[in-house]
Amino acid sequence: MGAELSVIIPTYNERDNIRLLLKKIGQVLDGVSWEAIFVDDDSRDGTNKLVREIALHDSRVRCLQRIGRRGLSSACIEGILASSAPYLAVMDADLQHDESLLPKMLKVLKSESVSIVIGSRYIEGGGADGLNKARFKASRLATFLAKFFLKAEVSDPMSGFFMLKRSLFEKVVYRFNGRGFKILADIFASAPGKVSFKELPFSFRKRHSGESKLDMLVMWEYFILIADKLIGRFIPVNFVMFVFIALGGAVVHIGVLGFLLKNIGFNFQTAQLLTAIMAITANFLLNNIFTSNDLQLKGWHFLRGIGSFYIACSVGAVANIYIATSLYNTNIPWWMAGVLGAIIGFVWNYAVSSTFTWRKIGKNC
Ligand code: GDD
Ligand code: MN
Question: Which residues, listed in sequence order, are joined to residue 63 by a DSSP beta bridge?
Answer without folding.
Answer: 38
